[in-house]
Amino acid sequence: METLGFLMEGFAVALTPYNLMFALFGAFVGTLIGCLPGLGPANGVAILIPLAFTLGLPPETAMILLTAVYAGAMYGGRISSILLNIPGDEPAMMTCLDGYPMAQKGRAADALAISAVASFAGGLIGTIGLIMLAPILAKFALTFGPAEYFALFLLAFATLGGITGKNPMKTVIAATIGIMISTVGIDISTGTQRYTFGVLELYEGIDFILAIVGLFAISELLFFVESRVGGGREKINVGKLTLSFKELVSTIPTQLRGGVLGFIAGVLPGAGASLGSFISYTLEKQVLGKKGKFGEGDIRGVVAPEAGNNGASSGALVPMLTLGVPGSGTTAVLLAMLISLNITPGPLMFTQNADIVWGVIAALLIGNVMLLLLNIPLVGFFVKLLSVPPMYLLPIVTMVAFVGIYSISHSTFDLYFMVAFGIAGYFLRKLEIPLVPIILGLLLGPEMEKNLGHALILSDGSWGILWGSPLAVGLWVVAGLGLVLPYVVGPLLRRRMNAAMKESPVSD
Amino acid sequence: MTGFGDRILGLGLLVLAVAYGWAAQQWPEPFGGAEGVGPETFPTILAFVLVIGSLYLMVKPDPDAQWPVRKTALELVTSVVVLIVYALLMEPLGFIISTTLAVGTLSWRMGARPRMAFITGLISAVVVFVLFNYGLDLSLPAGLLEVE
């Protein structure tokens, strides 16, 4: 039980008071980010990166902080789903279906409590899955050569849009733009200046942190300005907790099913948390059939998607940690943190930076317990936050983004750059060009080029090496499928998801 | 006409792709002769991919999004100007004053009452300034308020 030993070491890292404090802080801020209007998880984590930097946190602490934020955001997303019928983030969409009817029946407190428990169960199952699967995958990934890595990166881009994505071509375009931006600066292998136009600030390339913060935070502000929903929402009364122990026990099978399904969806490329919660919900509906009152406030209709999306969020860490290839926006932002800490993600990380990897995994377990403990007593506090008007909140968030970027380099040049990225982000979002592939392109571009170079040196310049091994061919095929499937299966799946939303009598 | 936005974007990206690809061909050959992969290889591939993508956008554009007009567009431009001016004034005026102005203006334009907006701006500015300068030991510019 080598893994168990590593995990114990991880706990030794995560349980130091210093790291525990940051995990708690992260869990709290994460829940805040999840439930505040206009702050998605990817956005929230992105804003925290420069802060984690300027605080001079040691790498494992920084990663623990951000992972806790990530887990917390998944908890927070459900609060507005249940109370307002507005999902806090995309994966929380399915929670609306039964959560909101429960709230209307006066059982909001029960729905919030049971969903916290379900989130905990999902997160726990996902993390256990991560502990079992990650080391195996990391060992397997050690057999990858540069050609396989190149194909793997392509696969990551191809599947990023997800099976339910609308227009895969736009994902391709976005990824290409991201990689192009990453080529600005001095070429590492030859020293050629590329696209620097003689501007000194561009020699070192464009810092992806400011690109990420600009693309997410500034464009979000502009979207809010445009939609003119600055006013807050009314205060909501949660009511008393009437959940019985028996009821809680009766949902355990649902929690297990949801968590496992979610985890699998999280690990697979192209599925992700939204699909995880969707599958969990639909399966639960089919298993229980007529015994349940799905869509009218069935408690299991809240449990299944919550367990699913938290399972998926842990599952999504598997490819990020073992292969260095994230499958979602938020994990991409976590990858950005790792790269800027000078840690090369991928299989080697499990041997070279074992303390960080296992510290993060242990922190995820501890974080889940903390989140459960935080969420039940503090739910009233988080509910109050829902009524914070975005007109005050978003300008302050923008200011924090400015402070973060400024404190990295103390140069206003970076601030202009960030604003420019924000404007670009606004237009791209308007044109439905997804932002996540751009960010992934920025992060993975240099690695991709490096692996291409290595592969061609190994083969003496023959391009055939890129599809020279069965494994590489397999990756190419999956990448191809990732681009073609959305055209075939996508419309069907999207229709079913929409149909499920419409079936519920209150989702108007 | 539908799909106008995507067509313009496609055209813009096509120009970008061609310029990007062309620029890559202009770099001098690196010292030591050409190997399998030079500095221009990868950008050239990217340029090709983007050319194909942008042509696709122009041929098969998605339906247009709702673009903001007049007043909303003006608000958007205002917000962007505020952000740029904020970056511009941060060092000369100092963090507290520039932040009060920037956050205040943004909140006000998003619908808050002016008084409340600027008070929010001031409070958030002071809190962040104190937190960063004294709590975390990171210096933000004090600007005009600097005490010698």
Mean pLDDT of chain B: 82
Low confidence ranges of chain A? 504-508
Largest sheet properties of chain B: none
Structural class by secondary-structure content of chain A: mainly alpha
Report on the architecture of this protein.
The complex is a heterodimer of chains A (508) and B (148). Chain A is mainly α and 508 residues long. Chain A has one domain (2-503). Chain A has helices at residues 2-14, 17-35, 41-54, 59-84, 95-104, 108-141, 146-160, 168-182, 208-227, 245-250, 252-267, 272-288, 299-315, 317-323, 329-340, 349-352, 354-375, 379-385, 390-409, 412-430, 436-458, 470-488, 490-503, and strands at residues 185-186, 193-194. In chain A, strands 1-2 form a two-stranded antiparallel sheet. In chain A, a hairpin with a 6-residue loop joins strand 1 and strand 2. In chain A, helix 2 (17-35) runs parallel beside helix 4 (59-84), helix 3 (41-54) packs antiparallel against helix 4 and helix 11 (252-267) runs antiparallel to helix 12. Chain A is globular. Mean pLDDT of chain A is 81; it is low at 504-508. By secondary structure, chain B is mostly helical. Chain B has 2 domains: 4-59; 70-145, no CATH class. Helix content of chain B is 69%, strand content 0%. In chain B, helix 4 runs antiparallel to helix 5. Chain B has helices at 4-25, 41-59, 70-93, 95-109, 114-135. Classes of the chains: A mainly alpha (508), B mainly alpha (148). Chains A and B meet through helix 8, helix 9, helix 19, helix 20 and helix 21 of A and helix 1, helix 2, helix 3, helix 4 and helix 5 of B. Chain B: It comes from Marinobacter similis. Chain B: Pfam families: TctB (PF07331). Chain B: InterPro entries: DUF1468. Chain B: Keywords: Membrane, Transmembrane, Transmembrane helix.
